[in-house]
Amino acid sequence: MNDWLQKGLNMVKVVTTRFCWEQELFDVFKKNNIKQIPYLPDAGHSKIIEMVHNDELFKPIVLTTEEEGVAVVCGAWLGGDRSILLMQSSGVGNCINMLSLVSNCSFPFVTIITMRGEFGEFNSWQVPMSSAVRGTLELMGVQVHRVEKTEDVAPTVDAALYSAYSSNQRIAVLLSQKLIGRKEW
Amino acid sequence: MVNLSKNSLDRRSVVKEILIGYKDLLVISGLGSSSYDVHASGDSDTYFYLWGAMGGAAMMGLGLSLAQPNRDVVVITGDGEQLMGLGSLATIGVLKPKNLSIVVLDNGHFGETGMQVSHTGLGVNLAEIAKASGFEKVSEIKTNDAVGGISRQIKERNGPFFALVKITSESPDRSLPILDGIELKNRFRKTLGYPTC
Predict the structure, then answer these.
(1) Which residue of B has its CA nearest to A85?
(2) What digits encode the pLDDT tens for the residues A13-36?
């Protein structure tokens, strides 16, 4: 077998054997009857954002800032829709006061947050907010589940959605930067 | 309180004219005087009054309008509250829900906090921003004769519709709605046939 063919086959193998946590997560969204997906993009969320845009079951909502998404989730629930908010760690700071809506009215709330500024981070500007993510969320009454391994993403989000929508809980699932992968520059 | 703005419309009359006789309307009101105006027109289980979360009224309306595409959804808020959520006009403008209307009561001042002049009192035009953001219908309402057009646009459901209503800066007596957020949420959902969890 010549070199270029071997190289090509190896690439195919890598692609087909990579564990696709996004597909599992997508299935969890469907299983839990999630409808609205407000998001601020992040490289770590890019695949799932593309997937929900390509499926008519979902109503993806691109935001200009993360606190918009907090209010969207609450409005959606008033009207009977379940939702999940996607953002990156820097967006947590933008949400602080809007989270008073969630806690004051006991709205069910789940957000998936991709972490920057913690593992092989090139950009030090990401670090201050990243370091404060857990503290910020907990101070505002949001439980925090942190995920380190790709195979734990879907089960953790599934559990968070179950808790939130069975008894009006507020939960953030953090996807570690190691899980997402270092951002290459 | 003297009228510090050059506008002539009375906020209570305008809100009452929009809401009266339309019991099924789903309403989100922004914190401050807008919530008092909505309450003063007559309470309803399909009215959700914000007492905080400044800047979030339009986005609550968006989530609600997407969840209830066959119902008319109206956000009634003030210029200060909408200024804090300017980006939400862009978010609504790209999604274009036909059943969502945003009514901004614009007195050009931060009325709840001492009547300081707001950006709209200094020349910023929210209707132009809504238009540039992609709202399908935009109206600037300056006279009593034009107020009736707001209800017509809401019912036409060709939105998103944005109405900038130029009200005086007078502050009528407060009309206080329910403060308990959980009760507000539960009664709203119950009316639409949903359980509390």
Answers:
(1) B63
(2) 545 556 799 999 999 999 999 999
Q: Do B66 and A81 touch (CB under 8 A)?
A: yes
Which one, of B103, B161, B111, lies nearest residue B134 by Cα? B161
Q: CA angle at residue A115 from A109 to A120, to 5 degrees?
A: 175
Query: Is B153 within 8 Å of chain A by CB?
Result: no
Residue A144, classified by CB atoms within 10 Å of its CB into exposed (0-12), middle (13-18) or buried (19+), is middle
Could you give the 3-state DSSP secondary structure of residue B84? helix
Is residue B134 packed enough to be buried (19+ CB in 10 Å), middle (13-18) or exposed (0-12)? middle
Which of A65, A80, A97 lies closest to B194 in CB terms? A80
Question: For residues A78 and A36, is the Cβ–Cβ distance under 8 A?
Answer: no
Closest CA to B161 of B66, B87, B78, B89: B89
**pTM score:** 0.94
**What whole-number distance in Å separates Cα of residue B32 and Cα of residue B45?**
19
Mean pLDDT, contiguous 10-residue spans, chain B (197 residues): 79 96 93 96 97 98 98 98 98 98 97 93 97 98 96 95 97 95 98 93
Query: What is the C-alpha to C-alpha distance for residues B5 and B166, in angstroms, rounded to an integer?
Result: 9
- Rounded-to-integer distance, Cα B190 and Cα B151, Å: 25
Provide the pairing of β-strand B116-117 with B109-110. Answer: antiparallel
The alpha carbon of B99 is separated from its chain's Cα centroid by a whole number of angstroms, namely 14
Answer yes or no: do B56 and A35 touch at CB < 8 A.
no
Q: Is residue B118 within 8 Å of residue B83, measured between CB atoms?
A: yes
For an interface test with A, which of B29, B66, B73 has the most A Cβ atoms less than 10 Å from its Cβ? B66
E strand spans, A19-128: 34-39, 59-62, 82-83, 85-88, 109-114
Half-sphere exposure of A109 (CA within 13 A, CB side): 29
Mutate to test the interface with A, among B45, B49, B60 (most CBs of A within 10 A): B60
**3-state SS class at B91:** helix
State whether residue A1 sits within 8 Å of chain B by CB.
no
